[in-house]
Amino acid sequence: DVKVTQSSRYLVKRTGEKVFLECVQDMDHENMFWYRQDPGLGLRLIYFSYDVKMKEKGDIPEGYSVSREKKERFSLILESASTNQTSMYLCASSSLLGGAGSGANVLTFGAGSRLTVL
Amino acid sequence: AQSVTQLDSQVPVFEEAPVELRCNYSSSVSVYLFWYVQYPNQGLQLLLKYLSGSTLVKGINGFEAEFNKSQTSFHLRKPSVHISDTAEYFCAVRDSSYKLIFGSGTRLLVRP
Q1: Is residue B112 over pLDDT 60?
Q2: Which of B41, B100, B104 minimises the CB distance to A107?
Q3: Binary contact (B32, A43; C-beta < 8 A)
Q4: What is the distance between the alpha carbons of residues A86 and A18, in angstroms, rounded to a whole number?
Q5: pLDDT for res B68
Q6: Does the pLDDT of residue A101 top 60, yes or no?
Q7: Band of pLDDT at residue A50, cut at 50, 70 and 90
Q8: Exposed (0-12), middle (13-18) or buried (19+): which is B97, by Cβ within 10 Å?
Q9: Are A43 and A37 in contact (CB under 8 A)?
Q10: CA-nearest residue of chain B to A106?
Q11: Residues 6+ apart with CB under 8 A from A57
Q12: Does A23 lie at the interface with B, CB-CB under 8 angstroms?
């Protein structure tokens, strides 16, 4: 019954390493999102994508990039991990933009990937 | 830009007592509001949503919320909580596009 799958639940990386976080959804959703969750700050949007090969910056894109080569897969990349990127990363998806009652308003989340950068 | 404020970072309550988790949002022409719940070591799941219509919205697990436009609030309530309700609760508002803006979260701690 799993609909949004994040490949790694826990990762430990070293400063300067390149990190890939993978997310796959099986609901044929157009929109996909990467959020970062930190205590006391809630969820902050890093990047989102509304179509294959399309991406837009969220509120905190610095230090991150994304890739969406296929509709079902959205990857978050940390080119050179730093200790301040230690966090919980949440992937989510939703269907296409629409008005009240449309599926665009409901995000389905993955279980999260907890990244520790040493 | 939209914003969401959850003033209470933690709410302790005894089992079977009522609870209210507060959420205020910045005003906008059209407002879509949500409550999500996150149980320990899990992702977020939708608890309830307000998109239009009745201002009293009922969700899963006996929770409900009331949209109050004049007070720009969307408080979450439950008349009698259980130990299993211990979790973090996030209020969210939809941005002008299809992004959700989340509050900082409220940790509900239910004690026996």
Answers
A1: yes
A2: B100
A3: no
A4: 13
A5: 93
A6: no
A7: confident
A8: exposed
A9: yes
A10: B46
A11: A47
A12: no
Nearest-CB residue to B49 (from A40, A45, A105): A105
For residue range A57-99, list pLDDT tens digits in order.
999 999 999 999 999 999 999 999 999 999 999 999 988 655 5
Residue recorded with tokens 């294959």: A52
The residue among A36, A33, A89 whose CA lies nearest residue A60 is A36
pLDDT tens-place string over residues B46-103: 999 998 888 999 999 999 999 999 999 999 999 999 999 999 999 998 876 667 889 9
Tokens coding A63: 């230090």
The tokens for B85 are 């309700």
B56-69: b or e for each residue (b if 16 or more CB lie within 10 Å)?
Answer: ebebeeebbbbbee
Cβ A90 vs Cβ A76: under 8 Å: no
Instruction: For residue B75, give both structure tokens.
Output: 């408080």
Compute CA B110 distance to the chain's CA centroid, rounded to the nearest angstrom: 16
Question: For residue B91, what are its two tokens?
Answer: 């209020």
